[in-house]
Structures are given as structure tokens and as C-alpha cells.
Amino acid sequence: MWRMWKILDYRRTVVLAHVGMAVLALLIHFILLSTESFNWLEGNPYGNAESAAEVAEAAVMPQQREV
């Protein structure tokens, strides 16, 4: 391992690794934004009204107690 760091500058390697991961993260987010089902900026986050109703029904709400 120490021979590898004699050939490669570790500061440049770490910076390039972080830049590469940031580019990959942006690429994944833009790909998801271009799809219809994973675009969280436009449209209904639940997909459609029927699935929104199903989510609302599935939510467990505590019972109201009468005082």
C-alpha cells in the first residue's frame, strides 16, 4: 500500500474521489428527476389520488377520548 502512495499524490486522489462521488450523486438525482414516478418537484408526491387515499387510510390515528 505504501508503494501506491509513493506513485500517487494522496491529496489529489482524495479530492478526485470526492469530486467523483459528488458528480455521481448529482447524476443519480437528475436521472430520478427526469422520471415520472420519482420526480419529487412536480406533481403529486403520492403518485395519484387513489394511492394518496390508501396512504391516508393506512395511517394509524389514535382514538379520541371523550372527557
UniProtKB/TrEMBL annotation:
**Domain of life (superkingdom):** Bacteria
All copies of domain Antenna complex alpha/beta subunit, residue ranges = 1-41
Q: What are the alphabetically sorted keywords of the record?
A: Antenna complex, Bacteriochlorophyll, Cell inner membrane, Cell membrane, Chlorophyll, Chromophore, Light-harvesting polypeptide, Magnesium, Membrane, Metal-binding, Transmembrane, Transmembrane helix
Please list every transmembrane segment annotated in the UniProt record, as residue ranges.
12-32
Extract the GO molecular function terms from the UniProt entry. bacteriochlorophyll binding; metal ion binding
- GO BP annotations listed: photosynthesis, light reaction
Keyword Transmembrane helix attached: yes
Any single Pfam family the record assigns to this protein: LHC
User: Per UniProt, where does bacteriochlorophyll a 2 bind?
Assistant: H29, W40
Cited InterPro entries: Antenna_a/b, Antenna_alpha, Antenna_alpha_CS, Light-harvesting_complex
Task: Note the topology in the membrane.
Answer: Single-pass type II membrane protein
Q: Which residues bind bacteriochlorophyll a 1?
A: Y10, H18
GO terms for CC?
organelle inner membrane; plasma membrane; plasma membrane light-harvesting complex
Q: Where in the cell is it found?
A: Cell membrane
Q: Report if keyword Transmembrane helix is assigned.
A: yes
**Role summary:** Antenna complexes are light-harvesting systems, which transfer the excitation energy to the reaction centers.
Q: Which NCBIfam families match?
A: pufA_517_ASD (NF040861)
From the Swiss-Prot or TrEMBL record, give the protein name: Antenna complex, alpha/beta subunit
Which organism is the protein's source? Halorhodospira halophila (strain DSM 244 / SL1)
